[in-house]
Amino acid sequence: MPHAHLPQAFAPRSGRRAERQGRRAAEKDQTRLHVPLVDRTPDDAPPPIIVTVVGPPGVGKSTLVKSLVRRYTKQTLNDIRGPVTVISGKRRRLTIVECNNDLSSMIDIGKVADLVLLMIDASFGFEMVSMSTLFFIEQQRISRIGIL
Fold this sequence. Notes:
Rossmann fold; 5-stranded mixed β-sheet; 37% helix
């Protein structure tokens, strides 16, 4: 019996500890499955908050969008195809949009978005397109800007 699995080696030493571990496992399962209830009353529902992720290629825009979706839905998004809308509360929805790396797309999406997240690779620095977009959105006071 060189590599036999010994069940007593992995058992808790006391009954109270086993009960606590079982309760904790059940709580974790329940919180993972909890989804905020949506208020489906027919009155005027507020429009979703549009969050745009902008930046040059390779800075982690898709990773940020996937992690935001994972945070709010507790489900993994493999590939991003267009805008993603998630429910973040009873009466609040977020629409997350990943923007291309050209000036006209960034300016157009900056006019529509409520929040623009400008991502910059610190090892590479600012690109001219990113600076132009930041300057334009700041001058027009179109939406709020966050720099990551």
